[in-house]
TrEMBL record:
Keyword Lyase: no
Keyword tags: Metal-binding
A single GO BP: L-methylmalonyl-CoA metabolic process
Residues in VOC domain copies: 4-135
Family per similarity comment: Belongs to the methylmalonyl-CoA epimerase family.
Descriptive protein name: Glyoxalase
PANTHER family xrefs: METHYLMALONYL-COA EPIMERASE, METHYLMALONYL-COA EPIMERASE, MITOCHONDRIAL
InterPro entries for the chain: Glyas_Bleomycin-R_OHBP_Dase, MeMalonyl-CoA_epimerase, MMCE/EMCE_epimerase, VOC_core
Gene3D superfamilies, per database record: 2,3-Dihydroxybiphenyl 1,2-Dioxygenase, domain 1
Amino acid sequence: MKKKIDHIGIAVRDLDNSISIYENVLGGILIDRYQSDAVGVESEIAIMEVNGDRIELLSPTNNSTSPIARFIKQKGKGVHHIAYQVENLDEAIKELEVNGIRILEGSLRKNKHGRRLIYLNPADTEGTIIEYCDYPDETL
């Protein structure tokens, strides 16, 4: 199945400062900024575009339940995940199962931009958090 990098998610402590760095140092453009209080997300997210590439800056909104807060506490701020766009998420999940790669339970969801996504279990990916996503209304 065809895959391509969709975006890189970066865990940050200070979202405003991070946006400023991406705008003023890297020439990025703020595409969207929103807060997700969904269980297992609990983050404020800034979507930046830098020369056609997407970066998601992720800042925890709940330090006791946010996976981003947990990530920062364990590993520090920095690259949290790499997202790959797939042609069809349902087919990609079947392909993962055939290859013995588990997905994180409860991670299947659709975000406000119409992106369906899941996270692969980092225990099966040498510790890297990988997101698979598709845009059902678009083609790859």
